[in-house]
Specification:
InterPro entries: Di-copper_centre_dom_sf (IPR008922), Tyrosinase/Hemocyanin (IPR050316), Tyrosinase_C (IPR041640), Tyrosinase_Cu-bd (IPR002227). This protein is α+β, with helices and mostly antiparallel strands. The chain contains 16 helices and 15 strands. It has 2 domains: 353 residues, di-copper center containing domain from catechol oxidase; 158 residues, Sandwich (Hemocyanin, Chain: A, domain 2), CATH 2.60.310. A 4-stranded antiparallel β-sheet has the order 12-9-14-15. Strands 11-10-13 form a 3-stranded antiparallel β-sheet. 50% of the residues are buried.
Length: 568
């Protein structure tokens, strides 16, 4: 099946209505829900209408969701109608490359454009307070879940709208209790579900932490919430390090292993981890944990709006950096395997006009798509001043744990931070998996592979089986909470870690049996590293000063993942 569209669907973001200086604000979920009951009612109804549209409509929910991966058909006349499966990857998404952050920017803008258009039409149907509804629809933008920040609502770490099967909606006909489309999307027709691999082909709705592999499966939202809560502190530290320590696009943009990595996770590495946390992979993978079907879960856009926001924050801090040349290691529907890409590469299938696509060079400013993030309200137009303002905001949002540790444990103005560096071949298991780090029985954090569940049908997955990804788990907070240490210097820390640190594997082999870390992930490399870091004082030095990195390869000797320093 293919879809050819005339005219081609263009991605504009929400229309400006002639008000060039006015752009809508993308808000944190809690600010968004408390600002007005009207906006959430419009949003839910708009999603419901998008989800009822046929797949043949390029702006329907299933059509937009299918851009990311399956059903591997042409969207909006972009690319050939029948791609060769031996030379082209089925989906359009650009994972593992320098285009990862920028490709998703017009994707979220397309979703926002479609949902706002539906909301504007719904607003016209109200007879009471119609102008107020119209104003809310005009301002409607995609909200984000800031999964890296401290929860604002005690006891509610995950947005309620993502985990409630029912929700109250003010419709033009009155208040109703409706099925919540953000809880799950119910597929309307056999296609595209018929193209999904098992177990996804058995399910008629999107699921998180599925309870079984058959058609009776339900989402286990309690498991979703508890797993996120167990990872929240680590994600916060990872995000802080990403935004304040990575200064080049190559290191910031993607998860592919680097020759000289900075001790901080890339934006894509954190993104991968959150996909797995939201979807779940045990005992069955949820839709968000597989890139071929993740786009059909509404949580995808709450997640990716935040990923785009983190891109905006990083760019404000590093205002001279943008997309650097690189390769597309996995290939896509329109990019060949290992294609050379850069700031002028087409971000297919997102049409800028009838003749051409958006390029990374076109979308540096969020105003291009008529939106802004609440983080930038009241900030300076001077790039250098703005960089410091955003650094201070990032520090306030995500740096609390790191700075508190430094104040308590620093010596001569610096603290020695401890981390685990993890590398593996991402396609080795044939599905998404996580490498989990423990100190004793205490779970600390993990690094995840976010990959297709059926690589045997993906030529480039087979071709790129040696593609290595990397990530870091930060140990310092967990260590000082668990042990009373005289200092954080190697003489005091190394014996503790040598005795108590370990890694486990969560994932499954193609036959559905649990994977074994000793036998099924031979590419795994794990090493402890430490680094002296100075955080300065207050707003005098919002970006940390980093010292030399020391690796302690022998700490993992005799444990899964250990390799000698010369083989690292």
């Amino acid at each position: 099946m293919s879809k050819a569209t005339d005219p081609r669907p263009t991605v504009t973001g929400v229309p400006r209505l002639g008000l060039e200086s006015v752009r809508g604000e993308r808000r944190n979920y809690n600010d968004w829900t408390t600002s007005s009951k009207l906006v959430s009612s419009l949003y839910v109804q708009a999603l419901q209408r998008m989800m009822s549209e046929p797949y043949a409509d390029d702006f329907s929910w299933e059509s937009i969701g299918g851009i990311h991966g399956l059903p591997y058909v042409r969207w909006g006349d972009s690319g050939g109608p029948n791609p060769d499966p031996d030379s082209e990857f089925g989906g359009y998404c650009t994972h593992g490359s320098v285009l990862f952050p920028t490709w998703h920017r017009p994707y979220v803008a397309l979703f926002e454009q479609a949902v706002q258009k539906q909301a504007a039409q719904i607003a016209q149907e109200y007879t009471t307070d119609r102008q107020e509804w119209i104003r809310e629809a005009t301002d409607l933008r995609s909200w984000f879940w800031d999964w890296a920040a401290e929860p604002r609502v005690p006891g509610m770490p995950v947005p309620e709208l993502l985990i409630s099967p029912k929700t109250e909606v003010i419709t033009p006909k009155g208040v109703v209790t409706a099925n919540n489309p953000l809880y799950s999307h119910v597929f309307q027709h056999p296609f595209p579900v018929s193209t999904f691999p098992k177990p996804f082909s058995s399910w008629k709705q999107t699921l998180r932490y599925p309870t079984s592999g058959d058609s009776s499966a339900e989402s286990d939202m309690k498991k979703f919430v508890s797993n996120y809560a167990a990872n929240a502190s680590q994600i916060r530290t990872q995000t802080y390090h990403c935004l304040t320590r990575l200064t080049t696009w190559e290191k910031f943009s993607n998860h592919t292993a680097k020759n000289d990595p900075t001790i901080a996770n890339s934006l894509e590495t954190i993104h991968d981890q959150m996909h797995v946390i939201i979807g779940g992979i045990s005992p069955y993978p949820g839709h968000m944990a597989d890139p071929t079907v993740a786009g059909f879960d509404v949580a995808f856009f709450a997640h990716h709006t935040n990923v785009d926001r983190l891109l905006a924050l990083w760019r404000a801090i590093n205002y001279t950096a943008w997309v650097s040349p690189g390769q597309q290691p996995d290939g896509t529907y329109t990019l060949s395997n290992s294609a050379e890409v850069d700031t002028q590469s087409d971000l297919t299938p997102f049409w800028r006009n009838q003749e051409g696509y958006w390029k990374s060079a076109d979308i540096i400013d969020t105003n291009t798509f008529n939106y802004a993030y609440e983080d930038f309200k009241g900030t300076s137009q001077d790039p250098a001043v703005l960089a410091k303002q955003i650094l201070l905001r990032v520090q306030a949002l995500y740096g609390g744990d790191s700075i508190a540790l430094a104040k308590k444990h620093a010596s001569n103005g610096s603290i020695r931070e401890w981390n685990v560096h993890i590398k593996f071949k991402k396609f080795e298991l044939g599905s998404s998996f996580s490498v989990l780090v423990y100190i004793g029985e205490t779970y600390v954090g993990s690094v995840s592979a976010f990959v297709n569940s059926r690589p045997e049908n993906c030529a480039n997955c087979r071709r790129n089986q040696d593609v290595e990804v990397e990530g870091f788990v930060h140990l310092t907070k967990a260590m000082v909470e668990k042990y009373t240490l005289p200092s954080l210097e190697p003489d005091d820390v190394r014996p503790i870690l040598a005795e108590h640190i370990s890694v486990k594997l969560e994932g499954f082999k193609p036959d559905g049996t649990p994977a074994n870390i000793s036998d099924d992930l031979p590419s795994l490399k794990v090493a402890v590293c430490s680094q002296l870091v100075s955080y300065g004082r207050g707003d005098e030095q919002p970006r940390p000063t980093l010292g030399d990195v020391n690796y302690h390869h022998d700490i993992f000797e005799g444990k899964p993942g250990h390799v000698p320093a010369g083989q690292w």
